[in-house]
Design brief:
The protein has helices at residues 12-17, 50-68, 72-108, 113-116, 121-125, 211-214, 220-232, 237-254, 268-303, and strands at residues 2-9, 23-29, 33-40, 137-143, 147-152, 156-161, 166-167, 194-198, 203-209, 260-267. With 304 residues, the chain is of the alpha+beta class. The protein is globular and about 60 Å long.
């Protein structure tokens, strides 16, 4: 049985400027599948409705995955055989659903004079309407016999499979062409996704997070270790959620001061089976961290 959680925190920089939280997050757990999803609205001048864009991205993702799972037997049979094509179709459908939500909102809520006041007439005319709502998106989907994820823009997905090791199966912003920010609002957004698919390893837990979390750590090692520690504490789930909320709040105020979202889904049964393995991995990570620190100190002394 799957379980999960999600939480978004407003960053200190947005509190100072009076900007609303640009992040959105959600999770969904069913008997047969689970979804963890986060989105980070761009928040810059021309993306003046990106807090809504991130909300629509999360909604579009869940509705899309639900539709594909409407024929559960067919989806679970076909995905392992045609996962590249099916995942591309999922990406296209997410973008299509998002655009529909954007168009519907804009038709019911035309741009106000106040929103236009920040631009010259020429500047405003040059902005494509969907750009008002620009956002990133990071999605993880856990099925009974497979795991996959899609991503557009920055942010991270971390997975712990049955070997107990935390990994990032998608390269950072992999599909974005040079010097182009990957975003849901781009005209070729469906072709800018990164994706991964696994069916040889069983999933213990999976996390999606906006870039404010990753950048609050000193290294990728520390970032991955953080997720292993969280996973090791899933047996005390209700208390863990409180701890995570407090930690994300601190990181959003004393780290990069950016909004932070974290969403997680996990397999309760497999976690129970692998709990001792994950705890041992936490201890091994501590030892590796100590060795890295000692090596850095050694190099520092040698260069003096």
């Amino acid at each position: 049985m799957f379980n999960g959680f999600s939480h978004s925190v407003k960053g200190a920089s947005h509190e100072k400027t009076g900007l609303v939280c640009q992040d959105s997050s959600a999770y969904k757990v069913c008997d047969d599948y689970a979804i963890c999803v986060v989105a980070d609205g761009h928040g810059s001048k021309k993306h003046f409705r990106s807090n809504l864009g991130s909300k629509f991205a999360v909604e579009a993702t869940i509705s899309t995955i639900d539709r594909f799972y409407a024929d559960k037997a067919g989806f679970e049979e076909n995905l392992p055989k045609n996962y590249r094509l099916i995942i591309k179709n999922i990406q296209k459908q997410i973008i299509s659903d998002w655009n529909k939500l954007v168009e519907e909102h804009l038709s019911q809520n035309p741009v106000t004079d106040e929103e236009k006041s920040k631009f010259t007439e020429e500047e405003f005319a040059a902005i494509q309407p969907e750009s008002y709502y620009g956002t990133t998106l990071i999605v993880g989907v856990a099925g009974k016999n497979f795991t996959f994820g899609v991503q557009i823009g920055d942010g991270t997905l971390v997975a712990l499979f049955d070997d107990g090791k935390a990994v990032m199966p998608m390269e950072y912003n992999e599909a974005a062409p040079a010097n182009v920010t990957a975003s849901m609002c781009n005209s070729n957004a469906a072709g800018m996704f990164s994706a991964f698919y696994r069916d040889k390893q069983k999933l213990i837990a999976m996390f999606t997070s906006t870039d404010g979390l990753y950048t609050s750590f000193g290294s990728e090692f520390d970032f991955l270790d953080y997720h292993t520690i969280i996973t090791s504490k899933l047996n005390d789930f209700e208390n863990l959620k409180k701890i995570i909320v407090n930690n994300l709040t601190k990181r959003a105020h004393f780290g990069t001061e950016d909004d932070i979202s974290l969403s997680c889904v996990y397999d309760e049964e497999l976690f129970a089976q692998k709990h001792d393995l994950i705890v041992s991995e936490v201890e091994a990570n501590k030892q590796r961290a100590a060795e890295r620190k000692a090596e850095r100190l050694k190099k520092h002394v040698e260069t003096e």
